[in-house]
């Protein structure tokens, strides 16, 4: 499954789509509407280490003490703050947009939206796919699926940080939800 954007009357809308094979080749089947697409402007080009402060060595020690959920929330905060979002409790807000880490919803007012961030989409579907990620299977399969969950949500994870997250999720059996 993947996200496809359709333009209707000069507005973009995101849909969850899957390919299915027919005698005439591949056909796309829309699975679910994800919301209107918005593109928040990037206002800062700070790296992750600048977001969490200190040098990479001390950041590495700090990340070792964090849970998988705390690391995921820190990465989300880094990406959202670079697009102008401000944290308010368990939510990140920018104007009418809200990314709620408690309910795992991405909204504009009371409507679901898809935020086009880093050439991918942070929406309720990708946020839930990431935060509800379960580590099933062999290490390589889990690593690829975990990387895809982050990338699909528009979150580029620095390599060293990804190794820490992978170890916590795969080797230590932690989840982002607990």
Can you give the mean pLDDT? 86
What is the SS-derived class?
alpha+beta
Distance between the ends: 26 Å
What letter string, H or E per element, gives the SSE order? EEEHHHEEEEEEHHH
Whole-number radius of gyration?
17 Å
Strand elements, count = 9
Strand content: 25-35%
Q: Outline the low-pLDDT stretches.
A: none
Taking the sheet with the most strands, its summary is:
9 strands, mixed
The domain tally reads 1
* Overall 3D form: globular
The total count of helices amounts to 6
Q: Give helix % range.
A: 25-40%
Give an overview in words.
By secondary structure, the chain is α+β, with helices and mostly antiparallel strands. It has one domain. It has helices spanning 48-52, 56-65, 68-81, 124-131, 139-152, 159-171, and strands spanning 2-8, 11-22, 25-38, 86-88, 91-94, 97-100, 105-108, 111-117, 120-123. Strands 1, 2, 3, 4, 5, 6, 7, 8 and 9 form a nine-stranded mixed sheet that branches. The radius of gyration is 17 Å and the shape is globular. 25% of the residues are buried.
Short description:
This protein is α+β, with helices and mostly antiparallel strands and 178 residues long. It is 36% helix and 33% strand.
Question: What key phrases describe this protein's structure?
Answer:
alpha+beta; single chain
Topology:
Blueprint: E1 2-8, E2 11-22, E3 25-38, H1 48-52, H2 56-65, H3 68-81, E4 86-88, E5 91-94, E6 97-100, E7 105-108, E8 111-117, E9 120-123, H4 124-131, H5 139-152, H6 159-171
Parallel strand pairs: 3-8
Antiparallel strand pairs: 1-2, 2-3, 4-5, 5-6, 6-7, 7-8, 8-9
Helix pairs in contact: 4-5
